[in-house]
Amino acid sequence: MSIQQSDVLYTAAATAENGRDGRVATHDGQLDVVVNPPKEMGGSGAGTNPEQLFAAGYSACFQGALGVVARQEKADISGSTVTAEVGIGKNEDGFGIIVKISATIPNVDAATAKALLEKAHQVCPYSKATRGNITVDLAV
Question: Does domain 50-138 have CATH number 2.60.34.30?
Answer without folding.
Answer: no
